[in-house]
Amino acid sequence: MSERIAITVLTALGALLGHHGGDYLAQDDCMSAHKQHRTGQGRRELALHASTYAAAQAVTKWAFYRTAGVRVPWLAQLTGVVAEGVVHAVIDDGRLLARFAAIPGRQRDEHGARIGPTEAVPRPG
């Protein structure tokens, strides 16, 4: 296996395990409860969660690289950690996803047909 493929596979596995570590082990109830609030505490909890999430990703991937004996430049790892932290903060903030979900035609009914902006899902019976 080439080193590039090994790095890709190790990164994917590290991301999967790091995601679980960051979202389920490192995130406490306070972060989870307040990270989408538009208050000072909510912004702090979101920043703390995104930071701990990124740290969990970084540690997990570093451990995978180290165990496999693969060298990944520290700047590449740092860039990945920053990108993951920012993207995770944007996702967990919720506003961008809410706007995306509100785009007409994005919703589908139980049969897969698109639901328009004013159409409703018919009620049975």
Any overview of this molecule?
- There is one protein chain.
- The protein has one domain.
- Helix content is 68%, strand content 0%.
- The protein contains five helices and no strands.
- It has helices spanning 3-25, 29-34, 40-68, 74-93, 95-101.
- Helix 1 (3-25) runs antiparallel to helix 3.
- The model has no long low-confidence stretch (mean pLDDT 86).
For this entry, give a set of tags.
125 residues; mainly alpha; single chain
Quick structural summary:
The chain is built from 5 helices and no strands.
- Tally the beta strands: 0
Helix content: 55-70%
Mean pLDDT: 86
Q: Any idea how many domains? A: 1
- SSE order, one letter for each helix or strand: HHHHH
* Span of the ends, CA to CA: 58 Å
Runs in which pLDDT lies below 50 for 5 or more consecutive residues are: none
Structural class: mainly alpha
Biggest β-sheet description:
none
* Anisotropy-based shape: globular
CA-based gyration radius: 19 Å
Per DSSP, the total helix count is 5
Q: Report the sheet-strand fraction.
A: under 5%
